[in-house]
Design brief:
By secondary structure, the chain is α/β, with parallel strands linked by helices. The protein has 33 helices and 18 strands. Strands 13, 14, 15, 16, 17 and 18 form a six-stranded mixed β-sheet that branches.
């Protein structure tokens, strides 16, 4: 979208766009940059860095940043005399343009620079505030503000700025898509089908591969009497998928198309409601106006309606929009016939298995660490072996990456082979190769990550130069750095690096916390105690390791939640004590706020829980666990549809999501009145849902709600068999529901399903 002054002049005045005009300036950041006085007069800022400085400060949670951080942000290099002088000049120029002689707008001291909270009305801030509500009128106002990408067309030579801008544009775009989804549901629910269609079409302009919107739009078109657009929209979407990604629409989309065209009852859920079109076989008009039932076979033969054929290989996206931006592993492969791999751990939700010439590929990031080459001193090869062995062991312990054992790759030291051949033999996607050059006390290591499904290209090459002051210290330091980089690359999970690595340089502490996280995510009494032991050892090795403290707090919180202790409140108090310590160590850590927020929901402090969860998301909107935990809170405060949207975003950010994301999504669907979706999710692959109480309770309730009483009682019996002391009232006590009517309904549903009251 254009960002020139002419474009700005055509926009509504600030007071017409929902902004206050009580002496504050109006700052527009969507679609470019524009700042105006209360009377509407435009203010011309002298340069790009002055604009960026004002915008960046205005969007900070506390509206200020240190001078040193700002110099790196604006000039792309560490603070020095030159960049600090440049910053002072930029600040002076900004104040002069704003007429801020009294320093009432831009405030500062020797260490930091900030914006007075009462000085500006910022469209992006108002957009986020309005979009967080549930009133359709507020959602309408929010989308009126979203005029294009944040700071569209503004660039400077700074990697720090480019990274920030990319993340902020993605964050605001995701909020816009979520808002439009809810707005589409609200409009359709009130009978405003044309308005719902407009919202859906806008989503597809923002996210062209947003297939959930395609499925929602088709029955809305039918309900609006615009059936010819059902076929037309599906065709355009399918052609776009084929052209851009080489894939076809999902089976669910094909089912919705058939049912909508054939006039069957089609209920398509949305965030704020659902759309119901006429039921029964109804004659409909095709694109030529015929009232006969459409015959899809000729269309299939023409090639524009993709279909799934027996044993065909089909590729689909876990979350199309986010994965297009992401790097490695962005396209997840899905086979029509599902096979399990006995030697692999259970696949995470939403990720299945691809059959390629009858060969099975792991359902999670897969890697082989090849023997490192040695150059220079005679012990260089030995040093390289130590590094590669450390990386292999650390990855196997620390992440959900499938790592081939060292013994399986040793043969390639004596018998080299092309990368694709090695990957095929070992059944992996990624190869890590390296070389060690050692001359005296200098060690140079080059590590390269190869994606064999992308033509064998290098997706990462990193060089390390170290002094061999201490062999083991150097070996562990490099191993930690490489493993950290690999986790981010392979899982697209920056949260892994933040949660486990930041805050510690102790390799052993990191390994212990990594093992603790793996055990913690299993959510079972025995593994929870094992995780606690791991975290306790980690903080003993490094008392300032915030990630390990947060993990330790979760072990006590889960013990309280699931009644694994006779004194649940004591466990919750201990979780709070640990969370407070983590907050004291790093008050800006989003995960610490998520932990505190979840503790608050356990005690029935709904306001604090929502506030802390929101603060966590504000601190790191790209942290999927923070989004999912806020969704968990909202499922108890009466906002399951908004929670669904948050879980979906979390899954887009983490294409190899943990199982509890799926459990949470299933639960939210049931609370939103869609138990059929819950059953579909929780029974899509039974091996993904072992005897864990979490999904089983919701599955029993969902079966009961759809009238499948025998299945409900069978699931209830399996719960009691594993947890003989299970009580519905205890289950609904910590946490409880904000709405007492919901709590009473849940009690009746679970008891009717066969669970003991």
């Amino acid at each position: 979208m254009a960002s020139g002054a002419g474009d700005c002049m055509e926009r509504p005045a600030p007071e017409e766009r929902g902004f206050a005009t009580d002496g504050r300036l109006f700052l527009r950041l969507f679609g470019g940059f524009d700042i105006r006085r209360p009377d509407g007069e435009s203010i011309a800022l002298p340069g790009r860095r002055e604009r960026i400085l004002l915008a960046y400060l205005a969007l900070q949670p506390d509206r200020r940043r240190s001078r040193r951080a700002l110099t790196e942000f604006l000039w792309g290099e560490a603070a020095n005399d030159t960049t600090l002088d440049n910053l002072r000049t930029c600040l002076w120029s900004l104040r002069k343009a704003l007429g801020d002689d009294a320093d009432a707008i831009v405030v500062s001291d020797r260490e930091w620079i900030g914006i007075s909270p009462d000085a500006l009305d910022v469209d992006a801030r108002s957009f986020s505030r309005l979009a967080a509500g549930s009133d359709p009128a507020d959602l309408e106002k929010a989308m009126d503000l979203y005029d294009g990408e944040l700071l569209d067309g503004i660039e400077i030579a700074s990697d720090a700025f480019s990274d920030w801008l990319r993340d902020e544009q993605t964050r605001h775009r995701d909020i816009a898509v979520d808002t439009l989804e809810r707005l589409m549901g609200a409009r359709a629910g009130s009978g405003d089908y044309n308005g719902a269609i407009e919202a859906g079409q806008r989503i597809l302009r923002l996210e062209p591969f947003h297939e959930e919107t395609l499925r929602a739009l088709m029955p809305i078109y039918a309900a609006a009497g615009r059936r010819h657009l059902v076929l037309q929209t599906y065709r355009a979407f399918a052609e776009r998928l084929e052209k851009e990604l080489g894939i076809e629409p999902e089976a669910e989309s094909q089912r919705v198309l058939k049912e909508t065209l054939n006039g069957h009852t089609q209920r398509e859920g949305s965030e704020n409601g659902s759309v119901v079109v006429a039921s029964g076989p109804t004659p409909i008009a095709d694109e030529q106006g015929s009232t006969d039932q459409p015959d899809l076979q000729p269309a299939r033969d023409a090639g524009w309606v993709p279909v799934i054929r027996s044993r065909a290989i089909r590729v689909t996206l876990w979350a199309s929009g986010a994965l297009l931006v992401a790097g490695l592993g962005a396209l997840l492969a899905v086979g029509i016939t599902f096979w399990r791999v006995p030697e692999l751990a259970p696949a995470p939700l939403g990720v299945w298995i691809l059959e390629v010439k009858h060969r099975v590929t792991p359902t999670r990031p897969s890697l082989a660490v090849l023997p490192f080459e040695g150059h220079g001193d005679r012990d260089a090869t030995e040093f390289g072996d130590a590094i590669s062995a450390g990386i292999t062991s650390a990855l196997a312990v620390a992440s959900d990456i499938f790592v081939v054992s060292r013994s399986s790759v040793q043969t390639y030291r004596e018998r080299p082979a092309p990368p694709q051949r090695i990957a095929t033999d070992l059944r992996v996607r990624y190869l890590l190769e390296g070389s060690v050059s050692k001359f005296g006390d200098s060690v140079n290591i080059r590590v390269g990550l190869i994606d064999t499904q992308e033509g064998g290209r290098y997706v990462s090459i990193v060089d390390y130069q170290r002094k061999e002051a201490d062999f083991f210290q150097v070996q562990r330091e490099i191993t930690l750095e490489v493993v950290t980089a690999l986790q981010v690359r392979l899982t697209e999970g920056e949260q892994e690096r933040i949660a486990l690595v930041h805050g510690t340089k102790n390799f052993d502490a990191w390994l212990l916390a990594s093992e603790g996280e793996k055990r913690l995510r299993q959510m079972a009494p025995k593994t929870n105690l094992g995780a606690r032991h791991n975290y306790e050892q980690a903080v003993a090795l490094d008392p300032n390791y915030v990630g390990a403290w947060i993990g330790l707090g979760w072990t006590y919180l889960l013990e309280a939640r699931f009644g694994w202790s006779s004194d649940r409140m004591a466990r919750l108090i201990e979780a709070r004590r640990i969370a407070e310590r983590a907050m004291a160590l790093d008050e800006g850590r989003a995960a610490a706020h998520s932990l505190m927020g979840t503790i608050a929901i356990m005690t029935g402090d709904f306001s604090t829980a929502t506030q802390l969860g929101g603060r966590s998301v504000e601190l790191d909107y790209n942290d999927p666990d923070g989004l999912a935990l806020l969704a968990y809170t909202l499922s108890y405060t009466g906002e399951p549809r908004r929670a669904i949207s948050l879980v979906r975003r979390a899954s887009r950010l983490r294409p190899y999501p943990p199982r509890w994301y799926g459990w949470l999504l299933a639960r939210c669907h049931r609370l939103a009145g869609r138990p059929e979706e819950t059953i579909t999710i929780l029974t899509s692959d039974d091996s993904k849902y072992p005897r864990s109480i979490i999904p089983l309770v919701d599955l029993a309730a969902a079966y009961g709600e759809v009238g499948a009483r025998a299945k409900a009682r069978a699931v209830a019996a399996s719960i009691v068999a594993v947890y003989p002391q299970f009580s519905v009232r205890a289950w609904l006590t910590m946490p409880s529901y904000k709405d007492r009517d919901v709590a009473e309904r849940e009690l009746k549903t679970l008891v009717a399903a066969g669970l003991p009251e």
